[in-house]
Write a structure and sequence with these properties.
This protein is α/β, with parallel strands linked by helices. It is 31% helix and 22% strand.
């Protein structure tokens, strides 16, 4: 998609605050600091449109980004940040679960993991949860520029093994916001899923 116009439509906590359009939605999930903002900015050709929080775990709302009046990117609060209280985490969990399980406009989820490491327990739990609810998933391994390209296959197999990845159902892409590797492939996946 050729992107020129993007705006933050709304930051929502409850379903009654969600946009009322029928546009397809693609949600982005991942640990705090895994690179959701960098992926969003790369996809929409902006340097710093989606803000990187200076305090990990600070984003506590679902942020709906209007892309070309055709679809929404939904930035989901990052998980796995230790300084957030247990009750806060439970509150987010309920908010996220409510959105991901009850939103008919949701066409797929981009689940971000760090290409340099095996998936964390939180990454594995999120992937299993999305599988359980039968939500289409694209796993994007971020920060791939920090690994030699010759080692990408190894990194991919470590991630797939950790997630017990379902090759028949899902896709995995290596991505770098620095080199733009993977950008076109991510867009291709998005366009296929919003067309369904």
């Amino acid at each position: 998609m050729d992107v020129h116009n993007v705006s933050l439509e709304i930051s929502a906590v409850r379903p009654e605050q969600y946009p009322t359009t029928d546009w397809p939605e693609i949600a982005l999930v991942g640990r705090s600091n895994v690179g959701k903002s960098s992926l969003t900015n790369t996809l929409i050709n902006r340097k710093s449109f989606a803000r990187t929080s200076s305090q990990p775990g600070k984003t506590q709302t679902l942020n709906f980004y209007n892309v070309e009046e055709q679809l929404f990117f939904v930035d989901v609060p990052g998980y796995g940040y230790a300084k957030v209280s247990k009750s806060e985490r439970e509150k987010w969990g309920q908010m996220i679960e409510r959105y991901l399980t009850n939103r008919p406009q949701l066409k797929g989820v981009i689940s971000l993991v760090d290409a340099r490491h095996a998936p964390s327990d939180d990454d594995i739990n999120m992937y299993n949860w999305l599988m359980y609810y039968d939500i289409p998933v694209l796993v994007v391994a971020t920060k791939a520029d920090k690994i030699a390209k010759g080692k990408w296959n190894k990194a991919e197999s470590i991630i797939k093994k950790g997630l017990q990845f379902d090759n028949a159902k899902n896709d995995l892409l290596m991505f770098s916001s620095i080199t733009k590797d993977g950008k076109a492939d991510v867009w291709q996946w998005i366009e296929e899923h919003i067309a369904e």
